[in-house]
Amino acid sequence: MSAHMPLAKSHQPRPPALLRAALLALSCVSALLAICPNAAAQETPYFVAYSHHLEEPDNLEVEAYSIYGTQKGGPDFIAPWIEFEYGVTAWWTTEVYIDTQHTFGGLDRTVFTGTRFENRFRPLMHEHWINPVLYVEFENTTDADKTLKEVVGLDTQFDAAEPNSEANRHHTHELETKLILSSDYKGWNFSENFIGEKNLGHEAWEFGYALGVSRPLRLEATPQHCNFCRENFVLGAEMYGGLGTAKAFSLSGTSHYVAPIAAWQLPSGVTFSISPGFGLNDNSHRFLLRWGMSYEISGFGRKLRSMF
Amino acid sequence: MRSLLIPALLTFASLAAAAGAVHQHKSDDRGVWVEIAQAPASTRSWKNPYEGRADGIAAGRKLFLQHCAECHGDEATGKHAPNLRSPGVQNATPGELAWLLRNGNLTHRMPPWAGIPDQRRWQIVAYLKSLGAAESKPVSESE
To answer: Does the beta-carbon distance from A43 to B115 stay under 8 Å?
Structure first.
């Protein structure tokens, strides 16, 4: 007991600091919402897969998501993260993530697990049957990160069983690349992502995949403004998992998931999403639940530039 | 704090590049005409299933206000982006406008709207064609 006392004391200031940061972020977002108009976006409802639809130029989308996961051999966890997604041009979207995590039980139950910075580029200027997008992300996270935004290499649920007090000491710098292929056909979106991730600490390339399909419940719009009409609801499903490493390219020895998705896209620019996910083998978390809310701020960049 | 340094630098570099990109691509009506001219000839024969239908035009107006008005203005006469009631746009065929909506004009900051279903794009086209010609408002300098 006494051996734990110094550790416990050293972590006492964390909750107030986190609270202050959360309040500051909330204040900033509230101020932005107050001065900027909203807009309805055209994005697909996926949590893991990406389509070729980028953020509209000058628009900022603020997204707050969480994932709850069951854990074999350890306590369950919840990992909330915030995304700021900005349309730099019509062919370039940039995004910053702030990741946190809470594990039910143990020391250091709530931890900040790092940041990620991503960019997506459309190389082709027109729509085609299959539309490629190039994705590059720099991750500065710890091993305690459980947002499961992708599964690569030989990732399994047992990686997440390590206590936060240990896992959060191991920092990893990773470069993640994706080839995003996506098609729209008769209201359906089909997205296929091939993921390649490289730990910058001299580890082999790890690979993964994510697939997504989605469709609005109603394709044409109604003349009336409505929140609960079918046109505002999108249903879909995702499947994602690892593909081994450059030395051992394989579907086995890693984890795979399938997850239906439902999204409610309000005309006001707010979107609510939820997705229960199910592990497909013993290496996978048995159950994952993702949910979140996003808000599209139209013309954010233009208003920001006009201030200077 | 060191863990935030690299992302902060990358973000700053991105925004700086973004500012440069913004000033390279001022939107004007010519961009729309040039893009419409690139529409394949086959698009000219496309028929709008909502043409002249009051419900389609009303739905198109709703969609226009949700997706387009922030840049093109509530009356589509141009705000930060081109006037959609200019002769160049109004004389385009519904098929050419539907093609432009689907593909966008990426070098002139017009996003592709392929992510919304075909039916909704046709509803927007029906609304645009119902507006008729009007004089443009000056394009914002920030664009």
So the answer is: yes
DSSP state of B40: -
| Distances, alpha carbon B6 to alpha carbons A69, A117, A243, in Å | 30, 9, 29
ipTM of predicted assembly, 2 dp? 0.84
Q: Name the H helices within chain A.
A: 5-10, 14-35, 164-167, 300-306
3-state secondary structure of B139: coil
Distance (Å) from the C-alpha of residue A302 to the closest C-alpha of chain B?
Answer: 7
Nearest by CB to residue B114, choosing from A94, A115, A184, is A184
| Residue A84: exposure state from Cβ atoms within 10 A (0-12, 13-18, ≥19) | middle
Domain spans of chain A? 36-306
Among B62, B66, B112, beta carbon nearest to A39: B66
Q: In this structure, is the dihedral angle defined by the CA atoms of residues A68, A112, A152 and A65, taken in order, positive or negative?
A: positive
Residue type for position A39: A
Chain A residues with CB under 8 Å of B140 CB are 302
| CB contact (8 A) between residue A94 and residue B18 | yes
Question: What is the least distance, in Å, from the CA of B90 to any CA of chain A?
Answer: 22
Would you say the C-alpha torsion A18, A21, A22, A23 has a positive or negative sign? positive
CB pairs under 8 A between A and B: 129
Q: Is the pTM of this model over 0.80?
A: yes
| Alpha-carbon gap: B18 to the closest alpha carbon of chain A (Å) | 6
Nearest to B128 by CA among B17, B51, B71: B51
- In chain B, domain spans: 26-131
What's the CATH class of domain B26-131? mainly alpha
Task: Using an 8 Å CB-CB cutoff, list chain B residues near A37.
Answer: 70
List of chain A residues whose C-beta atoms are within 8 Å of the C-beta of residue B109: 57-58, 89-90
In CATH, what number does A36-306 get? 2.40.160.40
- Over residues B73-122, the pLDDT tens digits come to 999 999 889 999 998 899 999 999 999 999 999 988 899 999 999 999 99
Per-residue buried b or exposed e for A233-246, using 16+ beta carbons within 10 Å of the residue's own CB: ebebbbbbbbbbbe
Q: For the stretch A93-109, what's the b/e string if a residue is b when 16 or more beta carbons lie within 10 angstroms of its beta carbon?
A: bbbbbbbbbbbeeeebb
Nearest to A95 by CA among A53, A137, A65, A123: A137
Task: Encode pLDDT of A276-286 as tens digits.
Answer: 999 999 999 99
CB contact under 8 A, A54 and B111: yes
Q: Using alpha carbons only, how large is chain A's radius of gyration in Å?
A: 20
Decide: A80 and A65 in contact? Cβ < 8 Å. yes
Nearest CA in chain B to A140: B3
